[in-house]
Amino acid sequence: MKKLLVIAALLSLTACSKVSIENYEKISVGMEKAELEQVLGSADSCEEKTLHTNCVWGNESKNITVTLVSDRVTLFSKKGL
Length: 81
Known about the structure:
- The structure is a single chain.
- By secondary structure, the protein is α+β, with helices and mostly antiparallel strands.
- It has 3 helices and 4 strands.
- The protein has helices spanning 2-15, 21-24, 33-40; strands at 45-48, 53-58, 63-69, 72-79.
- The chain has a 4-stranded antiparallel sheet with strand order 1-2-3-4, covered by helices on one side.
- The longest helix is centred in the first third of the chain and has 14 residues, at 2-15.
- The N and C termini lie far apart (32 Å).
- The relative contact order is 0.19.
């Protein structure tokens, strides 16, 4: 019974993933970081560079990657969606 509950919980988390093609299509160049986080939630990782920040939502096989300059989307891409 315990295994069944764990499996059900994992499936519900997967179903609620914000890393989806529907959410990817809501992203646009110029969007503010706060708006982006309303759509995707907090990034799984961000790497700050000198003039920009690269953020990733998801994992190596399924993700959305966004480049921000001055907290605005400049580039974005998807993998595995």
